[in-house]
Structures are given as structure tokens and as C-alpha cells.
Amino acid sequence: MIIMIAAAAENNALGKNNELVWHLPNDFKRFKSLTTGHYIIMGRKTFESFPKPLPDRVHVVITRQENYKPEGCIVVDSIEKAIAVCPENEDNYIIGGGEIYNLALPFTDIIELTKVHHTFEADTFFPKLNKNEWVLVESEENFKDEKHLYDYTYETYIRK
């Protein structure tokens, strides 16, 4: 199963200068609980945005750089090869960035999207979902508080 997991703003913004443009601690906790113990597929820039590899996950990094070999990662040069190295009968997560989301969308079975209810200036965006291909099956509203500056909604989509 290929599951795309992302947080995107109302204008589909993901980030700017290889960083998120918001901070939602509960979304980080959700990301950790969903992806721990699984393969996570990402682009090189996303991998390099982490201070260190995420614990208890197998990192699959997609890059065109031939000699790129970060310790403890599986490195491939295409989304197809990234998916091929993942276990078939398990949940495997696409975690970004923008280019990888676009490449992975045709292979994706489920999308776990945190919709941040605000618009942001960004240089990386989540793909626009074709409502003829995806159905929203779960939605959970969350409201801003002292730790969360924006309202946000957890949305789960499955391919029709």
C-alpha cells in the first residue's frame, strides 16, 4: 500500500526554502505515529531538511546525484525504484517534497493530508487532487490554540 502523507495549506503550499512555513506539534505527533516502523520515501532535499534520520523508519531517498550515499538509507533514482524496494504487503509512506508528491500520485492508494486553514507564500506545493479520482473518507477538525497558530483538518482520501 502506498500512502502519501503531507500537510498543505489552503493554497496547497508545502514550504519555502526547504522548510515548513508553520509549526503544528500535533501534526508532527500524527506523522510520527503513522510512519514509525514503515518505509518512508522522500526526495534528497526533504531528507537533508531533517537534522538526522527519523528513528524507527527505513529511509528511501530519491535523487539524481550518482554518488549520493547517506548512511543508513536506500538510495534510488526514480519513484518506480523507490516503490519497488518497499515491502508489497505493508504500508509505505511518501513524505515529500513537492516533486516527489507529483511523481508518486499515480502510484498512491491513500492520502493522509493535514489541511492547514491559511494561505502561505511558498515555493513548493502539494499537487491539486482530481476529485474524480479521490474520495474523502475521513475528516477531523482541529482548532488553533496556544501551540497551534492555525486551524487544521486531518483528511483521509482513498482512490476511487
From TrEMBL:
Q: Which GO terms describe its cellular component?
A: cytosol
- Residues forming the DHFR domain are 1-159
CDD domains of this UniProt entry?
Answer: DHFR
Q: Which reaction does it catalyse?
A: (6S)-5,6,7,8-tetrahydrofolate + NADP(+) = 7,8-dihydrofolate + NADPH + H(+)
* Molecular function GO terms recorded: dihydrofolate reductase activity; NADP+ binding
Keyword NADP listed? The answer is yes
The protein's matches in Pfam families, at most eight in alphabetical order, are given as: DHFR_1
Q: Looking at the record's lineage, which domain of life comes first?
A: Bacteria
Which GO biological process entries does UniProt record here?
dihydrofolate metabolic process; folic acid metabolic process; one-carbon metabolic process; tetrahydrofolate biosynthetic process
Q: What InterPro entries does the record tag this protein with? A: DHFR, DHFR-like_dom_sf, DHFR_dom
UniProt pathway annotation:
Cofactor biosynthesis; tetrahydrofolate biosynthesis; 5,6,7,8-tetrahydrofolate from 7,8-dihydrofolate: step 1/1
Task: Give the matching PROSITE patterns.
Answer: DHFR_2
EC number, UniProt record: 1.5.1.3
Which key words are in the record? NADP, One-carbon metabolism, Oxidoreductase
Report the function annotation for this chain.
Answer: Key enzyme in folate metabolism. Catalyzes an essential reaction for de novo glycine and purine synthesis, and for DNA precursor synthesis.
Protein family (similarity comment): Belongs to the dihydrofolate reductase family.
- The protein here is known as Dihydrofolate reductase
Source species of the chain: Flavobacterium nitrogenifigens
